[in-house]
Amino acid sequence: xxxxxxxxxxxxxxxxxxxxxxxxxxxxxxxxxxxxxxxxxxxxxxxxxxxxxxxxxxxxxxxxxxxxxxxxxxxxxxxxxxxxxxxxxxxxxxxxxxxxxxxxxxxxxxxxxxxxxxxxxxxxxxxxxxxxxxxxxxxxxxxxxxxxxxxxxxxxxxxxxxxxxxxxxxxxxxxxxxxxxxxxxxxxxxxxxxxxxxxxxxxxxxxxxxxxxxxxxxxxxxxxxxxxxxxxxxxxxxxxxxxxxxxxxxxxxxxxxxxxxxxxxxxxxxxxxxxxxxxxxxxxxxxxxxxxxxxxxxxxxxxxxxxxxxxxxxxxxxxxxxxxxxxxxxxxxxxxxxxxxxxxxxxxxxxxxxxxxxxxxxxxxxxxxxxxxxxxxxxxxxxxxxxxxx
Length: 390
Hints:
The chain has helices at 26-43, 55-65, 70-83, 87-91, 95-102, 109-125, 133-137, 144-155, 164-174, 185-196, 202-215, 234-237, 297-309, 368-374, 379-389, and strands at 2-4, 247-249, 255-265, 268-273, 284-285, 288-290, 312-325, 330-342, 352-356. It has 390 residues and is α+β, with helices and mostly antiparallel strands.
């Protein structure tokens, strides 16, 4: 990885700071707190999880908001809370139902861990969400950010949050040259955020910094003239706003060629279930896998189905090509209609399977890549299998 940044043209470049030399004079700290909170109270977005200090609602929202945009989360939050209005409701729910409501939101380990944590809280503390940092952080899926956010917003505990918005604001406010995506960045920014935190209103202050990063101090074209911290901002004072935050350039993510088969037997479709842990754990999908070197997508589809399910199939039609990006890689997926020829299902990799009617497909939770072509599956395509077989 290499560090990239714009070389400043100004000759009076201020020194960049790391944690060891981070200066926050008490007077400036007080100004930052006062200006930020005043701005937040006047300009914050009205979001459903801000309507109360219920720790369960705040917890759900913070889990959903991890690496996901607010506008995407809002409808999922409403549906999730309608289905599971309390921690006890979530704990008593079947994981399949939880995953179905999470379908399309991505990062499904968040849903699995939230469900597991809810059951643990109900079992251990009768449904009372812990208000001590160590106890809450010990729950499945709860890291430093989630613990700090929930405890500060719901319980008024003085724990500072550090996310991408916070790091960007601090980088510009103090001209910090620590790359925000470096593995040690959290350990560098956390003490700074703690030093700035307003202990009188830690939840409000944490939300104010994040809101400033989301609405004003944005990655590109920040609205500096509308920022309450303009007169205190180092980057603004030295015309270096575009220099920050510093980021490390990363290698281009690899792209894998995937082949997937919609296997049809007597008008029913075969779906398989992924292992409960790992990428897309617990979700249902159509069988398939990576296309090997010097292998066609068609032959890969037949081979993968044989290896995963033990079935022999033949391809009778091509459906589409799907492109989808995950966090660290991308895929290009060719999707085929396949006719069942012979064999009994013997799974190698998946943990479960079902033959389903197309009308029942919405009952199951699928990865987003599968959702991109599910609506293209038609009864006509399934009937074609019967026609070709006759």
